[in-house]
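Residues determine shape. Take a concrete instance:
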Amino acid sequence: MRYWRHYPKFLQTILLMLLIFTLASFSFVIANFGINKIYGVTMGALSGVGPNSSGRLIAATQFLQGVTSLFTFLFSALLFAYLCHPKPTEYLGLQKVRDPRFLIGVLPLMVFAVPVFAQLGEWMQLIDFGAGAKASFEEQQKMMKALMGGTSIGSLLLYLLVFAVLPALGEEFLFRGIVMRFAYNNTRNIHFAIVFSAAIFGLAHGTVYNFLPIMLAGVLLGYIYYFSGSLWPSIVAHFVNNAMAIVLLYLSNKGIVSKELGEAEGLPWFFLLFALSGFLWIFFLLRKNATPLPSDWNDDFRGERLTD
């Protein structure tokens, strides 16, 4: 088998884009078939899903979200790694974590980071990017509230699977495991690679209003990958980030916490200052104890002969 690692980097980039487009298109075909057969609705009926939509439309939209995430990110990254390298898990960065403290440290790191990113999102909403951008953002917010408006344990587990587990795996495989690697191959600058992959990560997530906090979260995930020398801590961090938002919204739906806390809005300044201080302290501790990616981490032929 001739692996894609033998091809020029530019051609590999084109092949990755074609693979993502193909699997994303295929996911819509699968989702459309499933939505029609399982829920008895069409894809077009999902465009205006909101808090007042029927349970069937909301369930169909959750199904669409899960299928598109599975194919567009997870399957694309796994298949590309398989076609590129005889050791696809190594190619994606799924090495053993050399210092287990990173797996533990990312938990409080993300607990402190979530309110900071949420506040940045609030500040972004104060900027006028035009009526169209505002309307698009509000529609996206309404849809996400509708998709996570349940109060049962079963609903919570579904939300964690669709909006935390699948994105944590698929998006880290694709954006940190592959895009960050590509960016480093072309520049040999790890900081540029982290920021570039984070920018693509932000662009893939929707409107101009949430671009900055999502991009900065991507930068953080990139440095976690770099400092730990393994993609696993960034996967854990990504999951914790999404899961915290989901659990807080779930508790708000049940009336256990306030609506403001559930949506991480209107947090007091002293709480945000405490969160920022805790975030910076843990981040620099992790940096101080880093076991970073080796200098040849991006070498597709590391330790091997040039022929398969």
